Task: structure prediction
Amino acid sequence: MSFLAQDSGGQEGYIKQPGSLRVGSQETQAVTYLIKKGQTINNLKIEVPTPLAKEQYFFKKWSSQLPTDGKLEKDLVLTAAFRHDKHKNTQAFFTGDSKDLDVNIGDYSVVNFTTLNHGKLNYKGNSLAGFSFRVRNDLTWKSVLDSGFIFPTPVPNDDNIEFIRWGGSVDFPEGAAVNNKVEASIFLDKFGLKRPIIGAYVPSDAKNPTKADDPKRLHPNSVTDPYDESKYMTIVIDAGEHATLRTHSTESRQLAFVVRQGTT
Result:
């Protein structure tokens, strides 16, 4: 298990070693403990080094948290990151290139908002298939929103399309999730059809023809014909034991339709 003081990595305006680590009375750039594999972490008496920032610098964070339970089965490296004082309160977010901004790019995570089809996203008058932002990863989404960040607005292609919801690699920052820390993420805007009937199919289980997970039912996440399943219901026409229903492509006793609620 190793603890390292991060090198500045050639960051403009930074000295090579903006900080160090202290264990007991010793000050160093690295501290390593040799630990037998399989040891229970909460039984280890590990002294976590104290990060020491040099003048005009401050300790920002550890690259990860030291585990408090479980067993140590592989090498673990924790790096102490230091920043120049001028980067203590940089802007919460930005778009585009950072070359004209005095920020430490390591303090920011890439957050993408995108859509696949049936609509675009609008951000400050620009309509595109997606937008990319750099957002400070030491902040909660609430803090970022309070600083003036606004989400791109979903814009359907026409009146027959509706916005359903945001999906993504992490929870979309709304409700309780606004208190989550920012992290690298992709948010996908999901649009859906609004037509009265999405389509028809022959139920695979005649005894339970309306079940939502019928493999023959049109899937709400279809790429070509997505829809908001909360706004649709299944209507089944059953010809009875001694008759069948015939369409241009099939003949069966039952035929199910995915119909928008409220359709007359």
The mean pLDDT is 92. DSSP finds one helix and 20 strands in the chain.
